[in-house]
């Protein structure tokens, strides 16, 4: 804090006012700034227009101009009581940065952009609740090669706690799953992908993360889908009996194979199937590397939690949705699990793509068959006990 009424974050000094503001969401704001910086690094002097559609006090919009190098900043919040605050705060933008401040609903704002043919290199929608209704218009407002940075605080429907709402919002089944944040992010990306494909466009997910309250995804809008991109839409099945997980692409959908549950149950495995959702990678390591490099440059500010987050995500591109909490592995073993790092090393040594999940702490992500994971964990625990 630099004074009783002012809050400092990165290069911004501003008033946060009486409305919604969470200092703890700083890593998400740092990521937004670094996404703009990474766009600037590849833009070769082109325009860098940013739309902050649910701006709150305007902290992101201000930082996009001060630290991101945005050439134009549109800051909008539907709450008209916030307008004087937004205007005061955005007066702090550097001279020469084109600015526009408004109080439209995001729907009106984005529809206006479509009518005017206006596009932005980054569209940031930091929504309360589920922004599903905004997705097609938001994608229309993103320039080709630009980024949509979307947040949802609708954890209930995306994590299987309100299945009917998930059907309405995502057109998908959301079931309880041990990697619930991951499933929520993948449902959101699945919706984004289907909307982009319906427009003839493609997407590249750049980063996806959550702290359990907000589910944040950033994607690059591509002029066309890459070959086989539709193969990233699929289903994830979790067996509540034995803990196994299976993944199928919708394009090659077949029967679910038998898992480790006794066949005698006669009804097949008790599978909880979620989807359609995005089953491809969640993170783009190249973009995360550029963001981390940009964070080293003068004029950028990445705090320690933000840096740890980016490094964790870069280390786990999340190419498979199959994730298990180590606690679930321990339950299966009937004793404490081996250290996660040891399990990752042992499964990697057997040739299976494996990593600690970057999305949820204390989780294993692996391509290895579930019986192999359990047997490897058991072997590691036994070897430790024998020492
Ligand atoms: C999560 S807060 C934004 C926080 C801000 N981005 C930050 O980092 O501090 C969401 C904001 O969206 C605004 N809002 C809610 N519904 C909206 C809508 N339909 N269109 C535009 N703004 C909306 C709210 O007034 C609120 O200020």
UniProtKB/TrEMBL annotation:
Source domain of life: Bacteria
This protein's record includes keyword tRNA-binding: yes
PROSITE patterns: SAM_MT_TRM1 (PS51626)
Pfam family, one: TRM
Protein name as it appears in the record: N2,N2-dimethylguanosine tRNA methyltransferase
GO biological process: methylation
Gene Ontology molecular function, alphabetical: methyltransferase activity
Keywords carried by this UniProt record: Methyltransferase, RNA-binding, S-adenosyl-L-methionine, Transferase, tRNA processing, tRNA-binding
Source species of the chain: Cyanobium gracile UHCC 0139
């Amino acid at each position: 804090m630099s004074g009783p009424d002012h809050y400092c974050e990165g290069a911004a000094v501003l008033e946060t006012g009486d409305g919604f503001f969470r200092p703890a969401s700083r890593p998400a704001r740092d990521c937004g700034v670094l996404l703009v910086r990474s766009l600037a690094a590849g833009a070769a002097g082109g325009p860098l227009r940013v739309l902050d559609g649910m701006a709150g006090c305007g902290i992101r919009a201000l930082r996009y101009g001060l630290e991101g190098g945005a050439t134009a900043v549109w800051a909008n919040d539907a709450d008209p009581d916030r307008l004087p605050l937004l205007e005061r705060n955005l007066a702090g933008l550097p001279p020469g940065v084109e600015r526009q401040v408004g109080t439209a609903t995001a729907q009106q704002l984005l529809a206006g952009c479509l009518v005017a043919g206006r596009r932005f290199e980054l569209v940031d929608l930091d929504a309360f609740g589920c922004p599903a209704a905004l997705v097609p218009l938001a994608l229309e407002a993103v320039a080709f090669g630009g980024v949509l940075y979307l947040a949802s605080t609708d954890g209930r429907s995306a994590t299987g706690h309100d299945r009917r709402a998930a059907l309405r919002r995502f057109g998908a089944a959301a079931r309880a799953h041990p990697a619930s944040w991951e499933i929520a992010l993948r449902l959101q990306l699945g919706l984004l992908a289907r909307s982009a494909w319906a427009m003839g466009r493609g997407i590249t997910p750049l980063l996806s993360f959550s702290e359990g309250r907000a589910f944040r995804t950033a994607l690059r809008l591509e002029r066309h889908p890459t070959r086989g991109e539709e193969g990233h839409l699929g289903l994830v099945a979790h067996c509540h009996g034995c803990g196994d997980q299976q993944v199928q692409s919708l394009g090659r959908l077949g029967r679910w194979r038998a898992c480790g549950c006794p066949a005698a149950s006669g009804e097949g495995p008790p599978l909880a199937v979620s989807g359609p959702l995005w089953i491809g990678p969640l993170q783009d390591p190249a973009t995360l590397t550029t963001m981390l490099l940009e964070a080293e440059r003068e004029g950028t500010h990445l705090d320690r939690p933000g840096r740890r987050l980016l490094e964790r995500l870069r280390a786990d591109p999340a190419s498979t949705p199959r994730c298990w909490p180590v606690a679930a592995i321990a339950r299966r073993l009937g004793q404490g699990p081996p250290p996660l790092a040891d399990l990752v090393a042992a499964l990697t040594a057997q040739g299976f793509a494996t990593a600690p999940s970057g999305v949820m702490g204390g989780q294993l992500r692996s391509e290895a068959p579930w019986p192999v994971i359990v047997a490897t964990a058991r072997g590691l625990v036994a070897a430790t006990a024998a020492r």
